[in-house]
Design brief:
The longest helix is centred in the first third of the chain and has 29 residues. The protein is mostly helical. It contains seven helices and no strands. The protein is globular and about 55 Å long.
Amino acid sequence: MDWSPILISMKTASLSIFITFFLGIFAAWAVVSMKNETWKLIWDGVLTLPLVLPPTVAGFFLLYMFGVKRPVGQFFIEYFSVKIAFSWTASVIAAVVMSFPLMYRSARGAFEQVDQNLVAA
């Protein structure tokens, strides 16, 4: 029996969970601590955009960004000699992009529930 699909799935899932956890908490903390309400609304909309986009549109956007002939893809090839599109790294990036809004919204709700009087104390 070939175990490579299961191992690749487990590696992708574990790394994407790790990345999403810390990125989501940091982004939620940054947005909650913003003073300007306009910027807070803009960043909240941008960070939750993958939640409302269909997965095919998000995948197309990621391919468009990380493609070999696109600026981000060319940057990674030129400076790091890494091709992102259609690689294991691309599956991790796609998993992070699609799961990030869920972690972000949960962490943001938790940060907004913290009593500021307790923080000041």
